[in-house]
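Can you make up a protein sequence with its backbone structure tokens?

===
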Amino acid sequence: MIPALMPTYNRADLAFERGDGAWLWTTDGRRFLDFGSGIATASIGHGHPHLVQAIAEQAARVMHTSNLYRIPQAERLAQRLVDTSFADSVFFGNSGAEANEGMIKAVRKYHAENGQPERNVTICFEGAFHGRTLATLAATGNEKYLAGFGPPMPGFKHIPFGNMNALRDAIDGTTAAVMVEPIQGEGGVRPASLQYLRDLRAACDEFGILLALDEVQTGMGRSGKLWAHQWAGIEPDVMSSAKGIGGGFPLGAILAKEKVAKHLKAGTHGSTYGGNPLACAAGNAVLDVILGEGFLNHVDRVARHLWRGLLELAGRHPTVIEGIQGAGLLLGIRLLPEVSNGEAQSAAAAEGLLTVAAGMNVLRLAPPLVITEAEADEALRLLDRAMRRITPSQAKDAAK
């Protein structure tokens, strides 16, 4: 008999009742160090007093009015995002998939309004993950996710990640945009090189197409800068954000330059919940913290400390770990084929550490941005114990 809650997830048998910073407690009293942060979403940790207060105070006033009326909280948040990014205007939704769907619409609308409606194909990359709607599934291009949902929506072309020759070969008179994650999170925590991002920007300029960045997972400070593309010194034409932008409260955004945003006129795009007073109160509170003095420097410092520790961990476990990859506080432990990331995730949980599996047999680490070096060291200690649990030679000995 099917459960009341639709079984679309393979859930671990853990239920959490409270959290504090980078820590979570289950209903039966167990404590876990959270290095998944709700899949890179609890950006300023659990129970952050500033975020809690902002949500509580706004909820007591007004939670939702719809976009039939002005929303001062959204106006403020949009202005702050414009002031701290390349963008001239912002649209708010509820999730990363919605932000990416809107971004796809925006690049098509841009070309249609400029007299080239045939430019409606977005070039995407193998290993990408852009969401679960029909359009973002087609943009993702993963056969596993597409199976059973009929023919993929047209308008997307997939090429190898990191290959400029493939990109140039793919561009033709139908190309509208290049859509790319600075770090492929779900696809194995694979970072694009900074030079590759610069080359993508240059190619888009050369061919008159738009650069659309998916910073749903990499944005809002996770890389050590507010936006990951800032490390490359480039600007996109349009960008999606979600996950960490609301600190755990559902919020997504499309950030765009005026030349793109001006074509999304009244009636062309919308969202009932998007940018409501409660969501934007949360977004403003998160931004207060992330833009605080020294915060992003703290993220960068702790991330580099964790990176060095992970390299040492890999050196101690050569029969389990193939390599370390990623950037900032979005890092991946690439495992050897003899060990699955599911095994590693379970072993880490058994030691009291929460992680997230990713593609390419990678164990993903995406802790709250507020973690300390001491908490990074504790995670490394727990990972060391987890790797010892799954060392292939030890597993074979135990089976005898």
User: Anything to note?
Assistant: Residues 395-400 have pLDDT under 50 and may be disordered.
